[in-house]
User: Fold this.
Amino acid sequence: MIHPGHKEDCCGCCACGAVCPHGAIRMVPDGMGFLYPQVDAGLCVDCGLCERVCTFTRPRSREEEDMAREAEVLRFPDFLDRSQSGGLAYALMRKAVAVGYKVYGAAMDADFVVRHRRVEDLEGLQALRLSKYVQSDMAGVPAQVLADLKVGRSVFFTGTACQCAGIASLCRTYRSGGSDARPSARSGEGSRPRLLLMDIVCHGVPAPYVWRDYLDHVSRRQGGKLRSALFRDPAQGWHASKEKLVFEDATLVRDDYAFLYYQRYMMRPACHACPYACLSRPSDVTAADCWGIEKALPGFADDNRGCSLMLVHTPAGHAFAADFPDRHLRRMLPLKEVLQENLQRPVSPSPFAGLFARVYRTMGFAAVFHLFGQRALPVRAARKLRRWVKTIKRRSS
Ligand SMILES: Cc1cc2nc3c(=O)[nH]c(=O)nc-3n(C[C@H](O)[C@H](O)[C@H](O)COP(=O)(O)OP(=O)(O)OC[C@H]3O[C@@H](n4cnc5c(N)ncnc54)[C@H](O)[C@@H]3O)c2cc1C
Assistant:
């Protein structure tokens, strides 16, 4: 029976709940809103399927990682206004819908909770666009993907690498005899695979309850009803990380939530031990921001409006991403010229992450906001101290 001994051992992909034929596993949120499996010992028959499907802590070979490989950079000018990087993820999802795939991705519900959902048309795809900097709730989603495959539907799943790995492992487990229903996800009608996976490169996923409480905090101060929220507003420029909160009578553009995220206080513990933060990915195609494009390819994307990096890992991925019907620019580059940290190693936690979690759980969001936020006295003092140290170093060298 699955029982993640340490929080670092579970990424919350929810594959274990989906594979259990006895319905013995429920995903339950912890104090920060991260989902973890809880096994009902009365229903569990100890068949071991949940342990078999979990790939998160299994050692992965990095032998196939080729630092000398080429990567593709792409830009879809018509999508930049509502895409987080160059619009690649949206272009791939559009293509998938056009050829009949059911597309899964992360959307923000009317209550501002981020959940994975299935969409079937271009209108539905609009909710999947843009990055949501919070862990997406996957409860029930792997089971729905499996059900789709079982009845012959084709699925294009998008998510973080750990979510893609969970879906892939679930399908493998079924194929290898985990159940009577064995969707052969890699053999569809014609030459098109029934399951395609696209992952996004990920810096780590923040706590859902911190996002919820941040919105509550701002709404209470603002005193109006929150109409919409964007984690990173493309209108501020690709390099900016500012959230946009639209109230009935005011629009706020600020970076208090982004500050907490980039300080690495509130990420899922497993993100700091992520086995997929490397070039060997559990997907067909990877989409990322192409940081460094201005230097690597001057003139291609110098306007601070976004550029995508694409890595393709499988023949199915190559076939699918070989062309796009939408207007785009596309170039090959040596990967090492645009290789970012998150494709090489997991992000390390802030030394204060444990304290942040304890204060948040015991005293609530207002306390962490005042103690760890960018206007907090200790943070301002540390910033000042860093500036002094820099100045002293500069003067003495
Ligand atoms: C938490 C997080 C951290 C990221 N960190 C990095 C990073 O360090 N380096 C980097 O290059 N790129 C990172 N990205 C991805 C990047 O910001 C772009 O989203 C990605 O390159 C796709 O953008 P696009 O313009 O191609 O299309 P868009 O239309 O902007 O693509 C959105 C896609 O992202 C998926 N998505 C959005 N939010 C989530 C979520 N919470 N969980 C799972 N899937 C989600 C959607 O399903 C959709 O497929 C991160 C994204 C998230 C959500």
Remarks:
- Residues 83-90, 93, 105-106, 114, 128-134, 136, 158-160, 200-203, 205, 287-289, 308, 340, 342 surround flavin-adenine dinucleotide (CB under 6 Å).
